[in-house]
Amino acid sequence: MAREAALAACLEAVLGSRSSANRVFELLEPLAGQEEPEDIVSAARTCSRLFGALLERRELFVGPLPDQDASLAENYSAEDKYRIWMRHRYRDCVGCLGELMGHDAFQVKELALCTLMKFVELEAQYPLIKIEWKGTLTFPCDLLKEYMEYDDVRYFVMKAVTASIGQVTQKTKERPLPVYQQNVFSLISPINMPNKESEMVKFMVKQDNREELKLSKLQAHRQVFERMWLTFLKHKLPTGLYKKVLVILHDSVLPYMNEPTLMMDFLTVAYGIGGAISLLALNGLFILIHQHNLEYPDFYKKLYSLLDPSIYHVKYRARFFHLTDLFLSSSHLPAYLVAAFIKRLARLALTAPPEALLMIIPFICNLFRRHPACRVLVHRPGGPADMSEDPYVMEEEEPSQSRALESSLWEIQSLQNHYHPDVAKAAAVLNQSLSEMEDDISGLLELSAYELFDKEVKKNAVDVPLEFEQVRGLFGKKNDIFAEHFSLD
Q1: DSSP 339
Q2: 454 vs 300: CA distance, rounded Å
Q3: pTM
Q4: CA–CA distances in Å: residue 104 to residues 47, 204, 222
Q5: Which has the closest alpha carbon to 474: 489, 461, 459, 485?
Q6: Do the beta carbons of residue 395 and residue 329 sit within 8 Å?
Q7: More confident residue, 261 or 388
């Protein structure tokens, strides 16, 4: 009782006056785990009340946490210095609670977990990150990881999430609310699954017969993980959430499933949505097609339909062209199909920015190297010279009906007169015989306009002629008949 009274007095002092802020160390010290379990429990409960109050009172620093020593030296207000210092103490408390989940006493580890979950709830309500606009959803994923690293906790959390989705779906009778789906994704997306069974050594609950339990088997964890994701993705997602899921699916989900092919239905639906969602779905489809031998009907027809003016401007341009390059690498593809891709890419290149052109021209050259039958597009005497004579049907959705092989690549010839000298030089390569070795486009996939500009600025300037003949007339020629009317004098 004396210890609890002392902790209560300390809590009252810290919350009552900032001059007593240093007394927070008296509350944190027992959490180091060297005290009796009863004392640790009392200290944890007191810290829960302290930092719960500070979160509600907004007395912890909001935003990226500066280094404690640097913050004292830099130009922060006294108010901010206090908030930064106390936020560091809060972080110390969270770290101690994470360690206590491995304590021998069950009451200690249980309270540590419950306290952390209370902080998760409070941080979601009083976020420690800056909100860009009103209504933004926040969820303290970093804090959540403090206990999700325990194999048994992660296992039962995944089972609980799966059950929760089923219950919510049954209550709503339709797909879950977008807010609920966002919260579920925030909870499950940071989950780090083990790669090998030998890595599963961190359990919060110590049990002598653990090796005999299903809980200790990697396959069982993957089964629960798989069921959780499949249950979550069974319902239609908001557009923004589709993108978030697809960005991590190929790296963080598919490799840890017992049967990755079960994702085919979800990826097929996503691939058919169009736009950036279709581009992002390519990653997962690539894995299923190449690593798991799944077939996708009309895959190349759908890929061909994704080629629109936006592909040279979208955020995921590099990822899309990397995968498209892989899909078009097979020498067994029919010539008409590859020719259709070449023509469509070349036609869209007429309105593309220079940084995209410096990537797509070598990309097209590589396609010619892999598929010699398509070189007729370059070496066709008397072929169409512009769009009005071109037999290629840009609007045709079926590559085999586009008449691409009957055309020529006049678009690249047009780019030989491009205003950017590097583009004109790259396009001129097709006037010569192509080497057998493919161009490495990996460094060009993410080329930006800023990098192009920076490169031009850093070029060594050449000598510029200082004398010139002043332009006269409309066409700038001597004795121009228009000189009288269009003189610059």
Answers
A1: H
A2: 37
A3: 0.64
A4: 21, 9, 28
A5: 485
A6: no
A7: 261
